[in-house]
Amino acid sequence: MSGSLVNLEIIDPYAQGLMSLAKDQGLTDRFGEDATNFLSLLDESEELKQFLASPLVGADAKKAVLRQVVSDSFHPYMLNFLMLLVDRGRISLLTGVLQQYQSLLRDLNQTVLAEVTAAIELTEEQKESVRQKVLSMTNARGVDLETKIDPDLLGGVIIKVGSQVVDASLRSQLRRIGLQLSSSAA
């Protein structure tokens, strides 16, 4: 069994448990916000990520740092969930658990995740345009955007929703023109 499959077998029950608690308490969206905020914290701080994953750091130290980092901004149930992961030695899987929770939340809300890669940061107007394009491509009620910057694109965007990819990048358009020119010259 591969490592990622084993992790998924561990991650999914924790994410399902968190979703079950969220549904029972009417906190699904609140937990989603907390998950998004904590994933952002982990993305911004490699030190925090390494600290939490380190087997050399004791559970009490990890709990103290988590309490300090989330303070009053997270729901107490979410903080308790983080403490549970520390107690069970699963805090190193936190990113996967929170991402899986977000996936479950998107399913619950009939929302899709659109991964957008652009040459430059998109304006709010451009993001809304991408959302509308994705809504027209899918039967979803909502769209969550995850944007990445890739200066190699030159211009335009690449939108990935599940297995569907819409490549509207300038690089892709130039490649198609090049192929058309080479096939017409032959």
UniProtKB/TrEMBL annotation:
It holds the Pfam family OSCP. This protein is part of the stalk that links CF(0) to CF(1). It either transmits conformational changes from CF(0) to CF(1) or is implicated in proton conduction. It is a peripheral membrane protein. InterPro entries: ATP_synth_OSCP/delta_N_sf, ATPase_OSCP/d_CS, ATPase_OSCP/dsu. It comes from Almyronema epifaneia S1. This is ATP synthase subunit delta. The keyword Glycoprotein does not apply. Belongs to the ATPase delta chain family. The gene is atpH. It is found in: Cellular thylakoid membrane; Membrane. The keyword Transport applies. Keywords: ATP synthesis, CF(1), Hydrogen ion transport, Ion transport, Membrane, Thylakoid, Transport.
